[in-house]
Design brief:
The chain is of the alpha+beta class. It is built from 10 helices and 11 strands. Strands 4-1-7-6-5 form a 5-stranded antiparallel sheet. Strands 9-10-8-11 form a 4-stranded antiparallel sheet, with helices on both faces. It comes from Alicyclobacillus mali (ex Roth et al. 2021).
């Protein structure tokens, strides 16, 4: 076995720790395979796990085609095989001559690309196959022994698997840092990080308007002082749950400090009142009348062109609502 080839490969993998996302990692790995393992082309199969959906795996997909496979679209037969197997229903962990591939459509497609050898190495996460590293050679390799070639492929798939798990762990930690531990709502950082996605979604959404709403619990200090902080914590959770039940999947609910919440929502009309007053009523009903809140809101594009400007306008209206309710005991518009 060529110890020098393996040493060069592992030296190359030191840079993989810089990868922030899977696509960047796949690019690093493709470069190593091309320059150190005489691979002429390949792609990666992977089932992403949605951090914000509790780690639920998404359907498998092909990522970062390179070399031979970057020149032509991936054949439909690959997509068909993916429906039943992340490793394309092929023997894994070894090179195969194209003529030995049992699937007719796959064999024909690879032959049309002048592929001589083809191999699939599985990618693991927590002892489970999560994807595959798919590689090809269009010419015979004479400067690497079979043992060295096999060891390079095994090392690469193992390093990619490990790095993918590390990236996922970092994303989980980032996600957790953007959640309010008490209520499960987003915290200020979580809202600010997701605000650009809201702006992206506004493009071409002429019939929908972005509402920035704020919610403040009435007499919250009195609740804590009279009944204790555990009761106050339960009130915060009740409010967060009611807001989250009212919010649509693409809307945001955050706790931005103390007893104040923020809501980023959509409205069919350029008016914040219908959505926010509906949430105000929902909180009262959810708590059987024991918890009441004051609300304010603004419309992005009308009251401001930034999250900060919209929040300032909404906060001013919240205190108008709070003052009115102190005088009259109910919302001025309900």
């Amino acid at each position: 076995m060529d110890a020098g080839a393996l040493s060069s490969f592992f030296e190359h993998t030191r840079t993989w720790g810089r990868a922030q996302r899977g696509m960047e990692l796949f690019q690093f790995a493709a470069d190593a395979l091309t320059h150190l393992a005489s691979v002429d082309g390949g792609f990666f199969i992977y089932r992403k796990r949605g951090v914000e959906t509790g780690g639920e795996p998404q359907p498998p997909a092909v990522y970062h085609t390179f070399g031979t496979f970057a020149e032509e679209p991936i054949a439909p037969c690959v997509e068909q095989l993916l429906r039943s197997s992340l490793t394309l229903d092929l023997p894994t962990g070894r090179w195969l001559l194209v003529e030995d591939i049992p699937q007719d459509d796959l064999r024909t497609w690879l032959a049309s690309l002048s592929v001589l050898e083809f191999g699939v190495w599985p990618l693991y996460s927590r002892e489970e196959v999560r994807g595959a590293m798919v590689v090809a050679r269009t010419k015979a390799v004479v400067h690497l022994t079979w043992e060295t070639s096999h060891a390079l492929m095994e090392a690469c798939s193992a390093q990619v698997s490990l790095a993918l798990d590390m990236i996922m762990a970092i994303r989980i930690a980032e996600h957790a840092s953007q959640r309010d531990l008490l209520t499960g709502a987003w915290n200020r950082l979580g809202i600010e990080r997701r605000w650009p996605r809201v702006l992206d979604a506004t493009r071409g959404a002429d019939e929908r308007h972005v509402i920035v709403g704020v919610v403040d619990i009435d007499h919250f200090k009195r609740i804590n002082d009279t009944y204790g902080h555990p009761v106050g914590d339960r009130v915060l959770r009740v409010v967060a749950q009611a807001l989250q039940e009212q919010a649509q999947p693409d809307e945001l609910v955050g706790r931005i400090g103390g007893d104040e919440f923020i809501v980023i929502a959509w409205s069919d009309v350029p008016d914040w009142r219908p959505r926010m007053l509906a949430m105000q009523r929902a909180i009262r009903e959810h708590s059987s009348g024991t918890c009441q809140v004051s609300v304010g809101g603004s419309v992005f594009g009308l009251d401001g062109d930034s999250l900060e400007a919209c929040y300032t306008a909404a906060d001013e209206r919240l205190y108008e609502n709070k003052r009115w309710r102190k005088q009259h005991g109910e919302s001025p518009v309900s």
